[in-house]
Automatic annotation (TrEMBL):
GO biological process, one term: lymphangiogenesis
Top-level lineage group: Eukaryota
Pfam families: FERM_M, FERM_N
Domain FERM: 23-232
CDD domains in the cross-refs: FERM_B-lobe, FERM_F1_PTPN14_like
GO cellular component: cytoplasm
Protein's name according to its UniProt entry: FERM domain-containing protein
Transmembrane residue ranges: none
Length: 232
């Protein structure tokens, strides 16, 4: 077995550095877990994205990208053809990267692989829970039930209602009325029960199809500064 020298990490103000030519980048995935990638200081954003895709066994990378929080606390997409470290040094508030959907598709049929659909589903789930998409109450209930089916399989009358109260089904702060939330949980449980027998991957596809028709789907909002003359 060849001898493998131990690498000593030294922590700088912004990065874990292996040596002067490499740095360790942290990437938060759509399931909120984090991974680390060792990159050359000259590595492009695309090289980092490809490293993430390799970990996820994701081939259809053209829909995805990396972003970070800029110094104005606004999300900023990594320019894939440029040096990643230079972009982080110049624009980011912290070296943490986020993996996510950059280009939304008109139909789930555009996504060929199950892992692509799964990552896409996770992004839409975040979009709904973070309030970026506008839903009617019945749509929230339907989406919540599909998410539960996709992530926990079939309805269990002895367990479902209890864990629904702990599982995030609706946007944070959406309703503070306990009686209303209890009624919504009951309706989600009924809808979930009606989905019994549907495979998890099929539930993800149904979720994506439902979201495709919501107001705001595929849209990205930007904050602009308006000067006193009314120009942006």
């Amino acid at each position: 077995m060849p001898f493998i020298p131990k690498l000593k990490l030294r922590r700088t103000k912004r990065y874990n550095v292996l040596n002067k030519n490499c740095f360790l980048s942290r990437i938060r995935l759509l399931n909120n877990s984090e991974i680390e990638c060792t990159l050359n200081v000259d590595s492009t954003g695309l090289e980092c994205l490809e490293a993430v895709a390799l970990r996820l066994e994701l081939c259809e990378t053209r829909y995805f990208g990396l972003w970070f929080l800029g110094k104005s606390h606004q999300a900023r997409w990594v320019e894939l053809e440029k040096s990643l470290k230079k972009q982080l040094d110049k624009f980011s508030i912290e070296p943490l990267l986020y993996f996510g959907v950059m280009f939304y598709v008109p139909s789930v049929s555009c996504l060929n692989q199950s892992i692509t659909r799964y990552q896409y589903y996770l992004q839409l789930r975040k979009d709904v829970l973070e309030g970026r998409l506008r839903c009617a109450v019945d749509q929230y209930i339907r989406l919540a039930a599909l998410a539960v089916q996709a992530e926990f399989k079939d309805y269990n009358p002895f367990e479902t209602h209890d864990f629904l109260g702990e599982y995030m089904l609706f946007p944070a702060g959406w309703s503070q009325d306990k009686a209303l939330l209890e009624d919504l949980l009951h309706k989600v449980a009924l809808e979930h029960n009606a989905l019994s027998g549907i495979p998890q991957e099929e539930a993800e596809i149904h979720y994506i199809k439902e979201v495709e028709h919501l107001d705001g789907y595929g849209q990205e909002c930007f904050h602009v500064k308006v000067c006193r003359w009314g120009k942006m």
